[in-house]
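> forwarded from #structure-qc
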């Protein structure tokens, strides 16, 4: 077959009605003789088919005088059908050849897939199964049914049918080996029915039936085949049938788990993974929190296995009773002697799976029993379920996660957790399919119960009493609301609280204490924090050991994505908070968390002005959910000292990071009447002024900062207030005041901050570029942190941009953006990008500028910073005017001129108020975005 680059793509399909596709589009090939020519050329798989062979095939009774010319005409027409791929049909010295790559003929693809599957079947039957399913899917119906009167085609059809049998047989065998027998029982039955005397097909059907718990039916199929073969051929079946019947009968001593009353949803991949794992490991322990579905998954694995013994330990309360429970599971009656020895004797003669369910309350006894079984029964593989590992050397621990939750912007129904809720809900309250609003409600419900199957089923069961909206509103009481479930369930699974209580009681007292006090952290903790809390609680043993025990017991989850972190499912966290309240520890736990938050913000405050700023930024963003919870604790408890410490410590987060909610905290605290007499009030007002400035209200920012100066009790104004005054004054164009206040701030806080750069900006905007450079050079010399180095580079870019030195300005702006991104200073990325875009627009790089303006407008609009958004829009208006798009430019400038929060346009001709209509802000942003898109579409690159 020809290999190498070929013109256009061609695909010929012969495993069904003949089909030709060129560049993915089907092409009709009319006429039986022309179709026969195409089939013969394709079946030759790139080899030349002689003219003599073709004409003999087309006219078997005798070639007419015009036969060769007719063949030539058919070939010519085929080239026409091939269109851009006509060169694929090549003329040789004595015949024709159709050049196809290996993937362009379905027959060749099927053979290749079968060969690959045979190579991997023993090592990875699941992978082989996937390959064979693809191969089997290539058959689309009877092979070339309209061309079987052409003798060479008919011979090829027989070969294709034989290949089809081989693929089908291999697929059934691989699926049974991979634990997927249920998916191929129908195929096996159809294959056996199509070839009732074909012994391999019958044997495979028997294997599939036995593997799905239908041993009696498998034996019936074998008996009927033996009788039919003798009646119709007089022959006896091979010894393989006898051997298989013995294997099926021998497995009958272990009862096959019954099919569950409800389907197992969303666990197909887990079940398949466990089958593969059990093929390589002799002991696998399926662990996870209560209610996550360990038992259902394990029983499904057992049900799909050809032979399995299931030992249920939930009702067993004494480790001494484990051997007796095992004997009962084996249907073994032991009248005398050691019970475990008798069980081992039976298991030692078998090859199969033993499932031991619910081991966590009898760990020592289960560990000893499994150790004996693994040592004495080489053919036995054990799958255990437990809320924590058994602790044996041979053990492979496999953690079962909750069901997948719906993702944003995806169809919620495709999430396994939603599918489970809908299935159980239909059983409780049949009705029409869920509406879009109801689907969003279901998505919220499964999110709030962490995707835990037990919680989802209990929630769906409550629809017999509540509407969907009522259920959603009451989920804050989920531990008690999700109770009173099926009376057939074990007592520990009848309420969500009972499920949590079962696991909690298995912990030692110190482990319970640590679990309770970690529950106040909304988004978990890192290792250092967990160990500090453990040490603070005065635990008797090693804190790391207690933490490890909580992980092993599935009470917390450990993740290792960059940094080790320990989190609780929300349902477990709710249980922990309940236990804190019940034991009177709520206040102590809250105080400990607040103390952690105050120390964390102080540490971040110190680190952001050093080279460690990127790490501090990552820590801040990682711990924001916990800081949010701490803030609400602080405010609800009226702890003013702690609130002040947090807000002041987060000043740089307010100033340079797009963490809008932290800015809200500063404003909230500034409005608290209790702040009036607090010694830290002036610094809080400075932080609130910075927050308001970033919301686009520089007038209010200046008022807050001035109030902070007046309230200062330290003899000098806080540097935070002076800094805010200087940027507010910069926005309204009071350059002398900017220099005064920024230099005063610098004298208080030192040269490593942005104060000298602010003074340099004002000096540059006032027209003295040389003095501005000197000020900024001093500031850059003192800058240490990446964000302050970025600030200095940004100011340098502004100075050079105002001086008309575009190339130098661009280098500075790019440096500022890179450093700001490194440090997480998103605000600096925004302002430096605005400067960079103005340079690129001036250089005629219009498409780059327009693309960039669209992104920056979206950023500032998203953070609500209209002070800088007005500057961005004015720059865009300048560019639009140069592009001849005057109308949106005039609308933008008119709105900016009349906006009270628009800063003075430094270095531009924007003076006075333009006449004309003034759009609202939302409408104005729409106009700007439409103008950007319009000019990008036009592709106007030349600036007039």
């Amino acid at each position: 077959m020809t290999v190498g680059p070929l013109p256009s793509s061609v695909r010929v399909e012969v495993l069904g009605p003949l089909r030709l596709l060129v560049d993915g589009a089907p092409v009709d090939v009319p006429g039986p003789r022309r179709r026969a020519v195409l089939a013969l050329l394709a079946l030759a798989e790139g080899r030349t088919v002689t003219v003599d062979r073709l004409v003999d095939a087309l006219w078997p009774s005798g070639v007419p005088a015009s036969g060769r010319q007719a063949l030539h005409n058919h070939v010519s027409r085929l080239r026409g059908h091939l269109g851009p791929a006509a060169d694929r049909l090549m003329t040789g010295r004595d015949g024709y050849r159709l050049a196809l790559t290996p993937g362009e003929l379905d027959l060749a693809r099927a053979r290749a897939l079968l060969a690959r599957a045979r190579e991997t079947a023993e090592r990875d039957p699941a992978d082989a199964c996937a390959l064979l399913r693809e191969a089997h899917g290539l058959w689309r119906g009877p092979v070339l049914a309209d061309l079987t009167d052409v003798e060479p085609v008919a011979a090829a059809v027989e070969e294709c049918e034989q290949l089809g049998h081989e693929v089908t047989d291999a697929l059934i065998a691989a699926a049974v080996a991979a634990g997927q027998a249920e998916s191929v029982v129908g195929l096996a039955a159809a294959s056996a029915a199509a070839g009732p005397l074909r012994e391999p097909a019958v044997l495979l059907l028997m294997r599939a039936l036995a593997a799905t718990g239908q041993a009696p039916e498998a034996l019936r199929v074998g008996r009927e085949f033996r009788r039919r073969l003798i009646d119709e051929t007089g022959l006896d079946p091979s010894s393989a049938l006898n051997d298989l019947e013995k294997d099926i009968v021998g497995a009958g001593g272990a009862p096959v788990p019954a099919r569950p009353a409800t389907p197992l949803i969303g666990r197909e991949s887990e079940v398949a993974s466990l089958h593969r794992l059990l093929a390589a490991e002799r002991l696998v322990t399926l662990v996870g929190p209560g209610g996550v579905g360990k038992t259902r998954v394990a029983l499904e694995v057992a049900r799909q296995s050809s032979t399995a013994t299931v030992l249920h330990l939930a009702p067993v309360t004494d480790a001494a009773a484990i051997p007796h429970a095992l004997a009962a599971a084996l249907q073994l009656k032991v009248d005398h002697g050691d019970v475990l020895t008798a069980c081992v004797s039976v298991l030692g003669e078998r090859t199969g799976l033993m499932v031991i369910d619910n081991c966590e309350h009898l760990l020592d006894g289960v560990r000893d029993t499994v150790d004996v079984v693994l040592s004495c029964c080489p053919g036995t593989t054990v799958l255990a379920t437990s809320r924590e590992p058994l602790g044996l050397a041979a053990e492979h621990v496999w953690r079962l996660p909750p069901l997948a939750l719906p993702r944003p912007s995806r169809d919620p129904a495709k999430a396994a957790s939603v599918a489970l809720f809908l299935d159980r809900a239909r059983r409780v309250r049949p009705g029409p399919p869920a509406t879009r609003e109801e689907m969003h409600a279901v998505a919220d419900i499964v999110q709030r119960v962490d995707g835990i199957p037990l919680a989802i089923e209990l929630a769906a069961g409550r629809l017999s009493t509540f509407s969907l909206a009522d259920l959603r509103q009451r989920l804050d009481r989920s531990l008690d609301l999700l109770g009173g479930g099926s009376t057939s369930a074990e007592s520990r699974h009848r309420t969500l609280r009972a499920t949590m209580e079962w696991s909690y009681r298995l912990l030692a007292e110190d482990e319970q204490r640590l679990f309770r006090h970690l529950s106040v952290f909304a988004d978990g903790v890192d290792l250092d924090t967990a160990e500090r809390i453990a040490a603070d609680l005065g635990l008797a043993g090693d804190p790391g050991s207690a933490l490890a025990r909580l992980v092993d017991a599935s009470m917390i989850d450990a993740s290792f994505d960059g940094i080790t972190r320990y989190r609780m499912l929300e349902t477990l966290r709710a249980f922990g908070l309940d236990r804190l309240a019940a034991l009177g520890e709520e206040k102590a736990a809250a105080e400990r968390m607040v103390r952690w938050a105050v120390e964390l913000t102080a540490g971040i405050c110190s680190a952001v002005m050093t080279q460690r700023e990127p790490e501090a930024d990552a820590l801040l963003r990682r711990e924001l959910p916990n800081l949010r919870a701490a803030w609400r604790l602080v405010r609800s408890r009226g702890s003013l000292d702690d609130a002040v410490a947090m807000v002041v410590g987060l000043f740089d987060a307010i100033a340079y990071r797009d963490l809008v909610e932290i800015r809200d905290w500063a404003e909230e605290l500034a409005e608290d009447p209790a702040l009036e007499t607090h010694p830290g009030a002036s610094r809080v007002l400075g932080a609130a002024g910075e927050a308001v400035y970033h919301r686009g209200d520089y007038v209010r920012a200046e008022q807050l900062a001035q109030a902070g100066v007046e309230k200062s009790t330290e003899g000098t104004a806080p540097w935070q207030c002076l800094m805010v005054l200087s940027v507010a004054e910069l926005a309204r164009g009071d350059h002398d005041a900017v220099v005064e206040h920024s230099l005063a701030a610098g004298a208080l806080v030192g040269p490593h901050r942005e104060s000298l750069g602010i003074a340099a900006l004002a000096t540059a905007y006032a027209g003295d570029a040389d003095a501005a450079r000197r000020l900024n050079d001093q500031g850059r010399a003192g800058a240490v942190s990446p964000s302050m180095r970025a600030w200095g580079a940004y100011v340098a870019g502004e100075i050079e941009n105002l001086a008309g030195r575009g190339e130098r300005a661009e280098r500075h702006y790019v440096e500022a953006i890179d450093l700001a991104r490194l440090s997480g200073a998103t605000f600096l990325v925004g302002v430096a990008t605005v400067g960079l875009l103005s340079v690129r627009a001036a250089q005629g790089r219009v498409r780059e500028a327009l693309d960039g303006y669209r992104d920056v407008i979206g950023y500032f609009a998203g953070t609500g910073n209209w002070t800088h958004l007005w500057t961005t829009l004015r720059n865009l208006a300048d560019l639009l005017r140069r592009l001849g798009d005057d109308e949106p430019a005039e609308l933008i400038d008119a709105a900016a001129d009349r906006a009270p929060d628009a800063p003075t346009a430094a270095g531009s001709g924007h003076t006075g108020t333009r006449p004309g209509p003034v759009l609202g802000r939302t409408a104005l942003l729409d106009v700007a975005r439409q103008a950007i898109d319009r000019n990008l579409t036009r592709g106007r690159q030349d600036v007039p």
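QC bot note: Residues 249-256, 484-494, 907-911, 940-944 have pLDDT under 50 and may be disordered. DSSP finds 43 helices and 14 strands in the chain.
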